[in-house]
Amino acid sequence: MLDAEFFRRWMTTSAASVDREADRLTALDSPIGDADHGTNLHRGFKAVTAALEKETPGTPGAVLTLAGRQLISTVGGASGPLYGTLLRRTGKALGDATEVSPEQLAEALRAGVDAVMTLGGATPGDKTMVDALVPAVDALAESFAAARSAAEEGALATTPLQARKGRASYLGERSIGHQDPGATSSALLIAALAEVADE
Ligand code: ADP
Ligand code: MG
Question: Which residues of 144-154 are buried (b: 16+ CB within 10 A; e: fewer)?
């Protein structure tokens, strides 16, 4: 079973990964965006870590809801409200249980990803974070490791796609040939989840 501490570690491990990879995320956002994705997420996850140090949410749902709120209030770009919605909706779906099963997490994350698609209007193949998140949630029924591989493959598979949502879509065909920054950061968050599950 997964408790609040597991979810806190997922968020802090994600923050550490975003910290390490911020420059790469910003570099990916340079040819098909405005070169701020790493900076945006770094600011957001720093706030998440700070909030989790100050408050000690007692349930998995409360950890994710708090983290999502921080992302929405501190990240200026499109990714802030989208990731914030992902975490808040997932947290809401977990309810006030003090422990949840991996199956319950998979189901809740599905609700979170659905909320991201509703908010942003993107579906798989539009070259967004959805291209990593949907395969990850599909594979989570199998294992955390399978979800990590699926998210990484999903992120890599955005390279030949033409963007149909977000800033990159303004480039039309010129968005082809570049990996999507948001799909890349989504793969980092799922890798952090698998890493914490491994411990
Ligand atoms: P901004 O585009 O406002 O500068 P970021 O650079 O932080 O925001 O995030 C860009 C990422 O957000 C994209 O790479 C893409 O994955 C994701 N994104 C943008 N718009 C959408 C959308 N409508 N639906 C899903 N994801 C989106
Ligand atoms: Mg950007």
Answer: bebbbbbbbeb
